[in-house]
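Q: For a teaching handout, I want to show students what a protein-ligand complex looks like in token form. Below are the inputs, and the small molecule is magnesium ion. Please produce the holo structure.
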Amino acid sequence: MEEPVSWPKAITLREVGPRDGIQSEQLHVDTGDKIGFIDALSVTGIRRIEAVSFVSPKALPQMADAAEVLAGISRTPGVIYSALVPNRRGADAAVEARADALQVFMAVTDSYNLKNVNKNVKESLRDVADVVAVGRAASVPVEGTLSSAFGDPNEGDVVPERVVEVSRWMMDEGIDSISYGDTTGMATPRRVRDLIAAVREALPGLRLNMHFHDTRGTGLANVLIALECGIDYFDGSVGGMGGSPFASGATGNVVTEDLVHMVEDMGIDTGVDLDALLAAARIAQSLVSGDLPSHVLRAGPRDRVDSAGGTA
Ligand code: MG
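A: Here is the structure, written as tokens, with magnesium ion included.
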């Protein structure tokens, strides 16, 4: 039978658990435990790890030890350890701490951006320009992250035209890769398809990353339709750790091991060793108090149902 749709042959994954997960869970995790967690992820085959953020330690004390974490990890050759930064100060600190890549973040909507960094979108664009300048001077690549790309509890749905507009503004400041975050868990497959189509048509030179949440159970469905649209770059959080501290109930980044488990069975290469990833997921589980939402951690991989002790 012919395949009804074509999927990418391989995808790039970025693991966000050490930053997005730990930051959003508002956990206190010891520096040594963070380092151990990142080191466990480093041997899974994942090539990109969002390791830390350089933000105000007053606002986010969980990331106050970002420089120590980057200094303490065992860097696996070929793995890119990135740092999320909101502005020049964060970018300078990240470069100083030898981050391999910077991710400058802002929201698509003014209300979410004001809540997150106390600036409107236009004001944050000046910070994007600053971060790009710091990255260029240090030869460190800079990617963009756009949160609330599918909606904002205060402003409702975000139309793709708005996402295109803000993406274009970021590109005008020198960004050529943007991660679209479903921070608020409002994406559904049709909205994913519509956003990708709009961005692709208006901004063909842009590299797209999709950062989905599973807040309302659409996480992997959104991944699937994005794959069908040809997207080959996704974020995931091992164990499903994290979410957003400012979007009520919007916990649950897409689970990296669930994503890997699904797409590898579709013949899509992730380069990731599932057993090593599950070992990292168990470490993530040990860092949080409640049960993480990972399906594959709980049930075991589909081809090993017996060892998982599953029942009919
Ligand atoms: Mg997230």
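A: Two things your students might notice: DSSP finds 13 helices and eight strands in the chain. Residues 42 and 77 are 9 Å apart (CA to CA).
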